[in-house]
Amino acid sequence: MRRTPCEYMLWNGIPTIRKELAEALIKQFGLSQRQAAEKLGITPSAVCQYLTKKRGKTDIFDEKIMEEITISAELIMKANGSDVYIETCRICRLVQKNKNFPLLEERHSKE
């Protein structure tokens, strides 16, 4: 049975998006793992797993998507974390629309 695009993104895309957001918050804004976790509404151990690639193992190579993730990280910082869900959904839609995401490419080639 084929999974819907949202199911696919839930298991594969969202962890990668969260990983990239966590990395942006830590590298670009100098947050600790704990602070990044608070901003993203996840646990510090989840952030640790994203950074060590135990979760969100895929990298995003599309420059446009990465620029949008940077914008999202800035908005999350300014909004004190309240825009996490809006920004995650926005990036998810961009990834699905763009289809330039390794796991989506793999999924489309199997169908």
Description:
The protein is mostly helical and 111 residues long. It contains 6 helices and no strands. Helix 1 (5-29) packs across helix 2 (33-40), helix 1 (5-29) packs across helix 5 and helix 4 (63-78) packs antiparallel against helix 5 (84-98). The model is unreliable at 107-111 (pLDDT under 50).
Summarize the structure in short.
The chain is mainly alpha-helical and 111 residues long.
Could you state the order of secondary-structure elements as H and E? HHHHHH
Residues in β-strands, percent? under 5%
Helix content: over 70%
Distance between the termini: 11 Å
Major beta sheet summary: none
Number of DSSP strand runs: 0
Shape type: globular
Q: Give the mean pLDDT.
A: 85
Give Rg in angstroms. Answer: 14 Å
Task: List low-pLDDT spans.
Answer: 107-111
Which class do the helix and strand fractions yield?
A: mainly alpha
Name the features.
mainly alpha, 6 helices, 111 residues, globular, single chain
Write the layout of secondary structure elements.
Elements: H1 5-29, H2 33-40, H3 44-51, H4 63-78, H5 84-98, H6 102-110
